[in-house]
Amino acid sequence: MDFKNRIAVVTGGGSGIGKGVSLSLAEKGAMVIIADLSEDNAMEVVDIITDKNQKSEFYKLDVSNSKDVEKFGDYLKEKYDNIDFWVNSAGISKITPFFDHSEELWDKTMDINLKGQFNCCKVAVDRMLENNKGSIINLSSQSGKVGTSNYQAYCASKFGVIGLTQSLAAEFGPQGIRVNSIAPGVIYTPMWDQQKIDYAKKRDLDPDHVMDYFKNKIPLRRLGTVEDVAQLVCFLLSDDSSYITGQTINLNGGDIMF
Ligand code: NAP
């Protein structure tokens, strides 16, 4: 896959899945704009990329703040003629019993995971309409396909991402813009450092046994990796998937099959 001269934006590119996707896109020749809250993490990724003479820059962005995202759009318009690829990976996740779901947790989860992707898709589609071409990937989750206990806000936000994806794909397909979503199962990233403790409480497990618990219920008997996600993202961004839009692709070792 050759992404030379392609311009890509990755939100949440400073950590986990977004980091893996950013490294992979840069490896294939794309210029990668890493838009993230945390400057330290994102700059580490930019440095890894530029040390290899590949192309990347950092833009500090809170995806939940529509004014911030609009300004980011103005910046992109001024600096780049077009945007080819956009990956919405920024997100948060909290496992906690339903009656501990505060209004604040609900609002924050929706603001970042769902409104954040809505804000970013507005800019992405606007930039892609310049050339009537582009490909967008929204990170949903296995929890966007099936609800699980103690996870109401997160599940609702990730179900919402699938609706947002389908609706955009229907509206902008005629203008050459494809919008797809990915539903990963468990991918061990920094997100799981705290989350495995919360999950252990939910299942009454030792936190050190949580990942083995997951592995044993997955038909392929392993967790997903950020490289697994990056490969699928690259395929869905590329022209190799030119007839695929509005889809949510499971990436879960067979854990769920619908
Ligand atoms: P991660 O390692 O925690 O990375 C998330 C990144 O998003 C971090 O760099 C974080 O920055 C950034 N972020 C958070 N809030 C933001 C905001 N308001 N504006 C801009 N950036 C923000 O998580 P991950 O595991 O890679 O997850 C990436 C995406 O995949 C998420 O959407 C997640 O829901 C989804 N997903 C993950 C899994 C999994 O098992 N890991 C499974 C299914 C779906 P800070 O560090 O500064 O907060």
Written description of the protein model:
With 258 residues, this protein is α/β, with parallel strands linked by helices. The chain has one domain: Rossmann fold, CATH 3.40.50.720. The protein has helices at residues 16-27, 39-51, 66-79, 103-128, 152-172, 191-203, 210-217, 226-237; strands spanning 7-11, 31-36, 56-60, 85-88, 134-139, 177-184, 248-251. Helix 5 (152-172) links the parallel strand 5 and strand 6 (177-184). The longest helix is centred in the middle third of the chain and has 26 residues, at 103-128. The two termini are 29 Å apart. NADP nicotinamide-adenine-dinucleotide phosphate is lined by residues 11-12, 14-18, 36-38, 41, 61-64, 89-93, 112, 116, 139, 141, 184, 186-187, 189-191.
Concise account of the structure shown:
Helices cover 46% and strands 15% of the residues. It has eight helices and seven strands, in the order βαβαβαβαβαβαααβ.
Describe the secondary structure blueprint for this structure:
Layout: E1 7-11, H1 16-27, E2 31-36, H2 39-51, E3 56-60, H3 66-79, E4 85-88, H4 103-128, E5 134-139, H5 152-172, E6 177-184, H6 191-203, H7 210-217, H8 226-237, E7 248-251
Parallel strand pairs: 1-2, 1-4, 2-3, 4-5, 5-6, 6-7
Helix pairs in contact: 1-2, 1-8, 3-4, 4-5
The structure holds NADP nicotinamide-adenine-dinucleotide phosphate.
